[in-house]
Amino acid sequence: MTEKIKMHLPLVEMDGDEMTRVIWTKVKDLLLLPFLELKTEYYDLGLQERERTRDRVTTEAAEAIKKYGVGVKCATITPNDERMTEYSLTEMYKSPNGTIRAILDGTVFRAPITASGITPYIPTWKRPITIARHAYGDIYRNTESLAEAGTKAELLLTAPDGSEQRLPIHTFEKSGGIVQGVHNTDDSIASFARACFSYALDTKQDLWFNAKDTISKIYDRRFRDIFDEIFEAGYKESFAAAEIHYLYTLIDDAIARVIRSEGGFVWACKNYDGDVMSDMVATAFGSLAMMTSVLVSPKGYFEYEAAHGTVQRHFYKYQKGEPTSTNSVATIFAWSGALRKRAQLDALPRLERFAGILETAVQKTIADGILTGDLYEISTLPNKQKVDTETFILEAAQRLKNFQ
Ligand code: NAP
Ligand code: MG
Prior knowledge:
alpha/beta; globular; binds magnesium ion
């Protein structure tokens, strides 16, 4: 066997919960450790450890990403009332992803993993569509209220000098109704725009952005203008050199174009559009279990993960000793994505090559018809067979050895 691949700086490794925690160990043991001298700084974000450290471990992991630049994260439980009882928690800890994003800032890019035999529902789609969701403001930070009949609703802005501007919203006459106030900030929109242009350039794909500026002539127009300004000032030339394009269009026109397209671009979306469209894109490409996610911070930190959760229902079966057929592909691609980025930053061509081979081995396993239950149901392959969680990883490991 050839010598194991060496690393220079470590990856920040964040372990997690339930079925994805089970998968995490198997992926490391079967797909990484036989080939790599894997260097990681390990943080256990499993709920028990978050409880033991009163969630300090999550903050420490985020700080470590700032130090080393690249992290890879397993799915984790976001506690709710049931989890409080199940894990005897003293506090309802916030979502680790939320905590990490608040510390690193940045934009989440979600891309589907394609493989032959898993046919997108949209026949023209040949290449992945990466969705970038602006994860700040709009209705996610709204103030809203019921209004009874007879209520006059106004928008009141108090300027720094104390002067007031009142804008009428609506006078509810016969019927009561609803009102809401939403906002966004220039800084947040600009940071989102920069992240999208940089990511498109980095991955050599066109960038599409859309809003509804024909209707929302100030609010949505502001998004469009900020994107335009940043493109003109900072990216126009590098886009031309890379032979990629920036396209602004209306959201409804964009959806029509997306459906007709071949894929292979980055689709930047406002917060709500991104929320809705990322589920549409994931489903249309096959399965949520085939979606990767990377958080890119404006300071150049990267955090890779699977887009799905801890697959709780499968874990309860696993605990009872029943067979499971959970898809590990997005978790494996979180590792390959993080290893590739580490390799590029540290100039380690063998490691970069390994990341590509690992992905190819997994895609080959699927193309050979070796499938977990979720893919078995949607695959068009004639020779398909359904395998359990571990067998899929073992089969991928076998193919990985053949590629070495
Ligand atoms: P989920 O874990 O994504 O699973 C929802 C369902 O989708 C599963 O029951 C399963 O369907 C299918 N599925 C998802 N991933 C799969 C995979 N890898 N292989 C096969 N099937 C898969 O979402 P959830 O059940 O709503 O959430 C469970 C826990 O995950 C929650 O505690 C939540 O807080 C957490 N969560 C974490 C993250 C994160 O860390 N990024 C994201 C989302 C949710 P079937 O049962 O029909 O087979
Ligand atoms: Mg959604």
